[in-house]
Amino acid sequence: MTDIVPAWARLNAEAAEAAGLRIRALFDADPGRFAAFSARLDDLLLDFSKTHLTAPALAALMDLASAAGVEAKRDAMFDGARINTTENRAVLHVALRNRANRPIPVDGVDVMGAVNATFARLFAFAEDVRSGAIASSTGAPFTDVINIGIGGSDLGPAMATLALKPFHDGPRLHFVSNVDGAHLADTLKGLDPRTTLVIVASKTFTTIETMTNARSARRWIAAAVGEAVAGAHFAAVSTALAEVEAFGIARERMFGFWDWVGGRYSVWSAIGLPLMIAVGARRFEAFLDGAHAMDEHFRTAPLAQNLPVLLGLIGVWHRNGMGYAARAVLPYAQRLARLPAYLQQLDMESNGKRMTLSGEAVAYATGPLVWGEPGTNGQHAFYQLLHQGTDVIPAEFILPLEGHETDLAEHQRLLVANCLAQSEALMNGRSLAETQARLGPAGAGMALHRSFPGNRPSVTIAFRTLDPFALGRLIALYEHRVFVEAAIWNINAFDQWGVELGKELATAIVPMLGAGASADGKDGSTQALIREFLSLNS
Ligand SMILES: O=P(O)(O)OC[C@H]1O[C@H](O)[C@H](O)[C@@H](O)[C@@H]1O
Asked: Quick check: CB of 152 below 6 Å from ligand 1?
């Protein structure tokens, strides 16, 4: 293992050199560039040739990975070590898709027994809801399922349910997360409480938004079917049995998971129940199979061909070497519309940290701002800034090559052409001279406005088609990329203390928005905003 300090220094030196290069020139100088700066796992292709990375820079990144102990840290996660040190927990979302049933002991007990038993219950429940064997209190099959949850108890199943729309053959799915009453009200409008199943999904079963929405949904159901049988319309996904029972959901309608599954890593657990109901148990298993394929690849492939390692190193290269503060995630697939939001939680809640694992302030930048929208929509909105703005934002294009709409093949060609055109345009730009030549003398005054600096990096992740297996594999790729970056930054990717302060203050402000409680002691702005609210709501 090399020492980390010289490894960082070497990376920075390589980055300083590479920053002076034109990406396009790297292709001109090396016909083998694509082969050298791409990697694949079956049909999944990671193309990082349209970046400033050079062979010595990649070697420096590999050294950094080794100096940071990425492999040992990875193995510790897969072996069930308590790597989430600030919460003293193991991190074992990989156990949920451990399809080979490799024993994974936590405190000496193999977790796979509990995992498999829980899946057996979940799959039976999901299939019974789909077939109507588990029916509503009226005896009619459930036509609609509402998942009430937030953060990791919403984004995963909501993202995946949309992504796998062509595979839906169960009841309709709806997701309510925001405590804004508009979310619940708009969702309930048009639904029949007599044939609606509500899944209350909360790891802790204390999250204020979820519990508030769940209580209101319960009133809506009970008003239609009666309090005595309202429970037939509920299921719960949680790690907190006592809280679930206190809410009035029967033990047999509760599906558990474990403290070693982080919220943003929980789509593979019982939190995936809505997806199981939408697409069925077999396809959910294919989703797990895809993640397992990526887990095995991450666990065993040499670092230089290891997709999550490479993607993580590219992240470090852009964030630390090149100094870019953001990255755009741009899926060229409308059904991946919620993927950027999902990745925002996965990435920013994991790596938005400023303390090292040993409790010192980090001396380098950590997690970037992650944002995006599907293409081609984004092209007509914010790509202007990507092409001509003053900041360079590396883009990650995600591209399923085959669409499901075979009768709309022309759409797919247009979609793919646009994706390829964008990475080409970002890299090549259009020089002032070329712009002048194209515009001719008449357009001389416009040439500066209409030229493109280019030399803007991007990565393309392409695969055959968006199906359950490919989605599972893609999400696992991103999970492990976040892991690799955290390993190099020496931070804990698995806690989220940064969300607590706001929750605490909100709880204290709630009474101040009702009658009587004093806002004394609050700052002038907060007091004035409270008065503003009270003047309209008293
Ligand atoms: O599942 P729950 O316990 O309701 O938590 C829901 C979400 O809220 C928390 O504040 C965390 O920021 C998230 O990581 C979590 O996924």
From this structure: yes
Owner of token pair 């090399």: 2
CA distance 258 to 269: 9
Share of the chain above pLDDT 70, in %: 100
Distances (CA, A) of 507 to 134, 151, 214, 503, 504: 38, 18, 18, 6, 5
Q: Which residue out of 14, 285, 349, 479 is catalytically annotated?
A: 349
CA of 86 to the centre of ligand 1 (A): 16
Spatial CA neighbour of 313 closest among 5, 39, 23, 6: 39
Angle ∠(177,181,186) on CA atoms, nearest 5: 80
380 is catalytic: yes
499 lines ligand 1 (CB under 6 A): yes
User: Residues 376-419: pLDDT tens digits?
Assistant: 999 999 999 999 999 999 999 999 999 999 999 999 999 999 99
Residue 2 reports pLDDT greater than 90 = no
Is 156 near ligand 1, meaning CB less than 6 Å away?
Answer: no
Cβ–ligand 1 distance for 98 under 6 Å, the answer no
pLDDT at 52: 98
Ligand 1, atom 8, lies closest to the CA of 151
* ipTM field: 0.97
Which residue in the list 227, 360, 405, 503 is annotated as catalytic?
Answer: 503
Q: What average pLDDT does range 44-58 have in this prediction? A: 98
What's the mean per-residue pLDDT of the chain? 97
Q: What CA–CA distances, in Å, run from 525 to 138, 404, 507, 515, 518? A: 52, 52, 18, 20, 15
Closest ligand 1 atom number to CA of residue 201? 1
532 is catalytic: no
Taking only the tens place, the pLDDT of each residue in 318-333 is 999 999 999 999 999 9
Among 260, 267, 262, CA closest to 284 = 267
Q: Tell me the residue type at 112.
A: M
> Which pTM value belongs to this model?
0.97
Q: What is the pLDDT of residue 398?
A: 98
C-beta of 150 in contact with ligand 1 (< 6 A): yes
User: From the alpha carbon of 152, which atom of ligand 1 is closest?
Assistant: 16
Decide whether any atom of ligand 1 lies within 6 Å of the 496 Cβ. Answer: yes
- Model confidence at 516, pLDDT cuts 50, 70, 90, reads confident
What is d(CA 205, CA 238) in angstroms, rounded to the nearest whole number?
6
CA distance 420 to 394: 15
Q: Closest ligand 1 atom, CA of 263?
A: 16
Q: What is the DSSP letter of 86?
A: T
Render pLDDT for 197-218 as a digit per residue (tens, 0 to 9): 999 999 999 999 999 999 999 9
Taking 70 as the threshold, does the pLDDT of residue 450 lie above it?
yes
Pocket test for ligand 1, best of 87, 93, 153, 497 (most atoms within 8 A of CB): 153
The whole-angstrom separation of Cα 468 and Cα 146 is 21
> What is the per-residue pLDDT across 10-25, written as a single tens digit (0 to 9) for each?
999 999 999 999 999 9
Whether 263 lines ligand 1, by a CB cut-off of 6 Å, is yes
